[in-house]
Amino acid sequence: MFRPLPHRVPAAISSAASAPAFTGNQAALAAAPQFPHTWVPLATTYELDPDRPTPVSFLGQRYVAYRNNDGEWVVMDDACPHRLAPLSEGRVDRETDRIECAYHGWSFDSSGQCARIPQATDAVAAASLQSTRACVASYPTRVEKSVLFAWLWPEDLLTVVADPAAQPETMLAGVDLDTSTYTRDLPYGWDTLLENIVDPSHIPFAHHGLQGKRTDAIAINMSAPESLGAAGLLFEFGDRTMGMRRSSIGEFRAPFVVAYNGSFEGSPKMFNLTVVCLPTAPGWSRTIIFGGIKPEARVAHAKAGDAEVARQRSRLSVPALQKLGPKPKPSLFAKIFSLLPTWAIHLGSNRFLDSDLAFLHFQEQTLRQRGAPKPASAYFMPAPSDRVIVALRRWLEQYAHVLGPLPPPIQTRAALFDRWTQHTAHCRHCQTAVAGIARWRKRLNVGLVLCLAAASHWAARLLGVACLGGLGLLGLVEQQFRVSDYKHYQT
């Protein structure tokens, strides 16, 4: 799906005399330090609520995303030109197919052209609606394998049409068409997130009990990473996880994607992981992790046959990776896992990212406080597994910049592990689960009242106890959508 918008302001009202060189956030991006100009992966349509104007961010700039009546995804600057209120606090009017500002009711079509100013007389509105100042910048969008990409740069997107690395299909090579996603906003920066994702040596310790154990730690045999220039890095390594030796190839598809493909010694199991890493704001980043097959696509995949699905999943962007061959048939555990609802998988993913969240947040704060001219110079990295971190930092110095200055450290663990803000608030699957919990709580409360009214009967008393137990269980599950904690000394 591709929604081209050839003009930064609506074509009907743009002119050399009235149209600014850049509009909205484009001016800020034009003035920012260097960063690769590619399509930008902002969110996933698998998790976005199409009827909600959802706020998204990139390089410190705020945008809003929603789906119009034609089924196309729209990305605009998240600021009404009237008084700069966020459009993400507004609504999508399905009757007019416009996004409406919640402050004064100004409304805009998908191209960003203002269509209504309720407070203006007909004469004032006729003139004002023709002004470029009444418009919101709207950007070209594409959806590739459920990921919503936007072209946010001042330059025309045709400037990168011949650059494969800038295209969504290259970034997401090897990802299944029907793969589900998990998105989380993290309280540490993009460079820290990339460091973490390309580093296999932290797995036995940071994710002990979740993906392997501390006893899996061994000397990692990592080759010197191969530079792909502005396109990123390629690195090979051997490690041990879940008690099994593993040989893997990792690829940093600059600037947003890290992809792994590997095999286990003496096992038909394969290791495949693709992660999107997005710089959103100073001290914050967004990760999109690709998981199993979407529930609505599982039947179709079963009919297609395991071998064909394996071939689809084994598409790789680097020819050398094809030696790994197709994935084997899924294990019993994988089949059971595939039956879980999306919200349950997301709760497990929350737990996984919780496990290294705190020390990554404070590591980044310490690094910036020390003020090293080059971040890598503040580290002591003698092991072969550190080579990829050195190579990544070199790439960052040469081809990108890191947002700053950092906000102050987060003071409370409740704020640090705020799952609601970081995930639940922008995931339609988890929002649906929370709404379902509210409905069941209401039913159980009604049932409890009825049981109390009939407490003279033993069956009512028994049912009342069950209602109390159900309410307690709902409370525990709901808490997992809102806030949690992770303490390594307890694992």
Automatic annotation (TrEMBL):
Key words of the record: 2Fe-2S, Chloroplast, Iron, Iron-sulfur, Membrane, Metal-binding, Oxidoreductase, Plastid, Transit peptide, Transmembrane, Transmembrane helix
Pfam families: PaO (PF08417), Rieske (PF00355)
Start and end residues of each Rieske domain: 39-150
Annotated InterPro entries: Cholesterol_7-desaturase, PaO, Rieske_2Fe-2S, Rieske_2Fe-2S_sf
Gene3D superfamilies recorded: Rieske [2Fe-2S] iron-sulphur domain (2.102.10.10)
Localization: Membrane; Plastid, Chloroplast
One Gene Ontology cellular component annotation held by this UniProt entry: chloroplast
Domain of life according to the entry: Eukaryota
Keyword Methyltransferase: no
GO function terms (MF aspect): 2 iron, 2 sulfur cluster binding; chlorophyllide a oxygenase activity; metal ion binding
PANTHER family cross-referenced by the UniProt entry: CHOLESTEROL 7-DESATURASE NVD (PTHR21266:SF32), IRON-SULFUR DOMAIN CONTAINING PROTEIN (PTHR21266)
Protein name: Rieske domain-containing protein
Organism whose genome encodes this protein: Phaeocystis antarctica
